[in-house]
């Protein structure tokens, strides 16, 4: 029998509008961009991967950098190679290309989708079997105003879509931001709870000053209050034992996770398959967390159903996903480039059970959203 090899690799950038403008710490966005990667095997099977990031503000990678890295540097390393040796191929890519974790995660996703389709097996079985078949999902309140956020939260609780939330923060001065977050928490207290995510925009002293008030307001967690490099500051906040400290940007790679665990710098790790460089690395991060008694939260880079499916396959295999997830991407986009989008029902997202990622690309939609 002829050996199966990687025959063709293509990338395209999609720009898809979102349902309402989303206010991050540094930028407000009204559309989301994705790199759509297709890896075709010589047996005709095509694996798809999706690269996306919250924005250039997050860690510097963008869809444009991902596309360049994949087209110019990754593709020549993969073409003609045996896809069964996926781990060896990923190691080779790591040796020749530093950082660029989001790009590497996109490549891993497409290879696993291809392998799963070929073996007629869902990706979660290739990753090491399931721990759960559905995951709780939180929505991120980021309308830009506290009134808008309170109203949005109440509507979602009433409709039964989401039970809990996090608020995007960091746009205002830290004191104003803290007051605003408490106002939102108080505004929905009888219905629900929130975490706060300032994307590293606050300083140590202001954050310390507000920890008692956050505790009194019933805040679930404080996510990445300090800049990613300030691991010592995160450790000081965690030592206060008020509100659980979640590391997001600080806990990107497997090595970051090890350092944070050693320095007691987080109570929770936000997992993100893109920042970690893929699903397998994400599971390694969760393993370090498990050994250190740290809980995990299934974070998002705001993926469509393609990337969200990859997140669900990885997160559903993790035993210590104690804080649920924020895999609301498919519900946040105005459109989804797949034939059957993933849905969030009664606060949960279910694990796809078809081969590969379990998601079928809608070629017409993908073409319509492709950047010219
Ligand atoms: C982040 O930093 O957590 C996740 C939800 C959201 O609104 O932003 C992202 C990125
Ligand atoms: Mg975050």
TrEMBL record:
Keyword list, A-Z: Aromatic hydrocarbons catabolism, Isomerase, Manganese, Metal-binding
The keyword Manganese is assigned to this record: yes
InterPro entries xref list: Chloromuconate_cycloisomerase (IPR013370), DgoD-like (IPR034593), Enolase-like_C_sf (IPR036849), Enolase-like_N (IPR029017), Enolase_C-like (IPR029065), Mandelate_racemase_C (IPR013342), Mandelate_racemase_N_dom (IPR013341)
CC cofactor: Mn(2+)
Keyword flag Chloroplast: no
A single GO molecular function term of this UniProt record: muconate cycloisomerase activity
Residue ranges annotated for the Mandelate racemase/muconate lactonizing enzyme C-terminal domain, each copy included: 146-244
Superkingdom assignment: Bacteria
Pfam family, one: MR_MLE_C
Gene3D superfamilies tied to this protein: Enolase-like C-terminal domain, Enolase-like, N-terminal domain
Family from the record: Belongs to the mandelate racemase/muconate lactonizing enzyme family.
Name by which UniProt lists this protein: Muconate cycloisomerase
Gene source species: Alteribacillus persepolensis
Lineage: Bacteria, Bacillati, Bacillota, Bacilli, Bacillales
